[in-house]
Amino acid sequence: MIIRPRRLRRNKIIRDLAAETRLSPSMLVYPLFVREGRGIVEDIPAMPGQKRYSPDTLPRALEEVRKAGVNSVLLFGIPEHKDERGSEAYNDDGVIQQALREGKRHFPDICFIADVCLCEYTSHGHCGLLKGEAVDNDPTLDLLARTALSQAQAGADMVAPSDMMDGRVAAIRAKLDGAGLEDTLIFSYAVKYASAFYGPFREAAGSAPSFGDRRGYQMDPRNVREGVREALLDIEEGADMIMVKPGLPYLDVLRAVKERSCVPVGAYCVSGEYSMIKAAAERGWLDERRVAAESAICLARGGADIIVSYFAPELARMMKEGEL
Fold this sequence. Notes:
CATH superfamily: Aldolase class I
Distance between the termini: 31 Å
Largest sheet: 8 strands, parallel, barrel
């Protein structure tokens, strides 16, 4: 006798038992923006529901994140001072370093992941040092490694290079190991496309380039095999985890990378995806919770072991309440 699929769908308990894709709060990472200053909790207009915090108010956000059931956060810094070298990125008293120390003091068991890039810290908004109007790859590597080391010493459990410079994972691994920080993990943005979906993030982080774009070092959206090569190179250089960014528009890339990877693979549901869902929900065109849940399921089904999402607290609450 053949059991027809529709029989499995009639009862929620049986549907859950037979589900091919399972989600858990432990998969979720919540991105947070930290701005230099004190007493700051401010809305991000392009990302409704998201806020910028100063290091001293960050614990308020972390308390809510913990209550929701999310155990990992990804921190992005917004300094007051910017220069051509992005020197605040590797300042031991920089905004992210302050945030890490404050966060670890209040929540030592949260996993703190620090974004490693120079774009938020450079006066020109590009992800590395410039030679003319082009990013100069090799001299940038030392600054990225110094940034990662400073963040790790301030309390980061993982560092997440998002710059897409060639060789940066090896440079960071060597710098960390040389300082006795072999246990600090590298969660590499191994496959990061030059995407138009990053617009709201650039407003949130104040990181839009002052000229040109980032297609010279981020990936061409037309290429899949290149993404697999980038992922394997980062793993070879010492990445402990890798990421595909953006998420939903690149599910085919996520699947291709997952099939070749020997380390955990993450996917980033980026600001543009978040803001599109929020905008459509505000107009009554979509059910926000259902679409956010379906998006996360799609990423997991596509191969993501880790999901970086601005919906992470809401997703975790839905999981705890049995809605996801």
